[in-house]
Amino acid sequence: MPGKKENTKKQEAGKSYVGIIGGPEILELADYREKKEFDTEYGKPSSPLMLGSIAGVDIAAMRRDAIDGGLSPQNIPYLANIKAFESLGVKRIIAISSVATMRSDFVAGDFVFPSHFINMSNGRRDTFFDSGNVLRIGDPKPYCSDIAYWGAKAADNLGYIKYHKESTVIITNGTRRPTLAESRLFAGWGCDVIDYYQYPEIVLAKEKGICYGAVSMVLDYDSIVEELGKSFRAYVDMEGQYKRTISGLKALLSEMLPNIAEDKSCECKSTVYVKDTK
Asked: Where is the Nucleoside phosphorylase domain (predicted)?
């Protein structure tokens, strides 16, 4: 993949990419033909944008924790990452992450297409508009409904992937696991899975007018499931489960991407923006 440095003010003419951001699984999704490096006013992104295709759809993929996995959730340059996607002209981002489930009816290997989040992370800059003109977003359902719809449709078509929609993800700082008391609280709030990422990615994408949907892979159990009748300690084959889940992820993306690239009927454009010039 030859490197090519891009100015963030330029977009590649004649190309329309679906953005994909995730962890180590990003490197396995496609045979990338090129990578583009960016310098933004918010610093350098976590990694170059790697250009390739899945099922004939052009994608721009980024590993959010750096190519070598060396970035913790707190140190990810979220603003630079989203700015790089915007600079390439990306209009839709699929966020991939591994999550722990808080529910006994969610099992390792399931996929989750969340509709809601609760943010319990802190210390992360989460807006492009923190000085001068302030942009306030009103969006009760922050995730792109089309991405969730086509993800579920793809799973139905494949026939062997179990998934959950209308789910709520709670985002914590990581990498510390929640205590049992915290997990009881989160479960009482109606949370289904725990993630370390997605926020502030989702609100930053919204500020840039980019649709953001998540495809979360259940790979682990939270301690609360022991109180719900399932031992999370009994599951130890993380490496084997990861390989099986990545295989399902590749099939899922191949099935859903052609529809996501073409469908523009989502409600994301109805997000309410209020500018405060004071």
From this structure: 18-225
Is 263 in the active site? no
Q: What is the pLDDT of residues 106-142, one digit of tens each?
A: 988 999 999 999 999 999 999 998 766 666 666 778 9
Phi and psi based region of residue 39 (left: phi greater than 0; alpha: psi -120 to 50; beta: remaining): beta
CATH 3.40.50.1580 for domain 3-263: yes
d(CA 228, CA 254): 35
d(CA 246, CA 161): 12
CA distance 220 to 235: 8
Q: Which two tokens stand for residue 170?
A: 């709670």
Active site residue 237: no
Under a CB-based contact definition with an 8 Å cutoff, are residues 213 and 95 in contact?
yes
Write the Ramachandran bin of 166: left for phi over 0, alpha for psi from -120 to 50, otherwise beta: left
Of the residues 139, 156, 220, 237, only one is catalytic, namely: 220
